[in-house]
Amino acid sequence: MDDTRRQQRKAPNSLPRHEIELLAYAEAQAADLAARRQVLAGFQALERGVARAEREHASGAPHGAELLREWRGSAEAFTRRYGGVLLVSLRL
Fold first, then answer.
1. Segments in the chain below pLDDT 50
2. Where exactly are the structural domains of the chain?
3. Of 17, 28, 30, 88, which has the fewest Cβ atoms less than 10 A away?
4. What is the pLDDT of residues 58-78, one digit of tens each?
5. What is the pLDDT of residue 71?
6. Are 15 and 43 a contacting pair, CB within 8 Å?
7. Whole-angstrom Cα distance, residue 3 to residue 25?
8. pTM score, whole prediction
9. What is the residue-wise DSSP string for 18-80?
10. CB–CB of 59/82 below 8 Å?
11. What's the burial of 77, exposed, middle or buried (CB within 10 Å: 0-12/13-18/19+)?
12. What is the rounded CA–CA span in Å between residue 61 and residue 79?
């Protein structure tokens, strides 16, 4: 995730600690993959988190909406940063 997104993100108030750690790990993994020119794999790592957050939200989990917002925000920030490379990857 880019520095701007980190600075803009408010600390999640109601997310369980393990959810925050999972998100941070996925963001670091996605950035590492992107640095190794595996942008699509990085995006997919974040998209798996978005899908899980969507299931949590749909099931009525108390933190579901916030979890989904955080994961989507992370995936959107990644796309803004690596979107051009991502589009090329999808066309191959």
1. 1, 3-8, 10, 92
2. 39-92
3. 17
4. 999 999 999 999 999 999 999
5. 96
6. no
7. 16
8. 0.78
9. HHHHHHHHHHHHHHHHHHTT-HHHHHHHHHHHHHHHHHHHHTT-TTHHHHHHHHHHHHHHHHH
10. no
11. buried
12. 27
Positive or negative CA dihedral for 69, 70, 75, 79? positive
Going by C-alpha positions, the residue among 73, 76, 53, 75 that lies closest to residue 65 is 53
Residue type, 18: H
What's the rounded Cα separation, in Å, for the pair 92 and 53? 29
How far apart, in whole angstroms, are the C-alpha atoms of residue 58 and residue 87?
29
Q: Please tell me the distance from the alpha carbon of residue 46 to that of residue 28, in angstroms, as a whole number.
A: 10
Distance CA 56, CA 27 (A): 19
CB 40 within 8 A of CB 79: no
φ/ψ of residue 16, rounded to 5: -65, 150
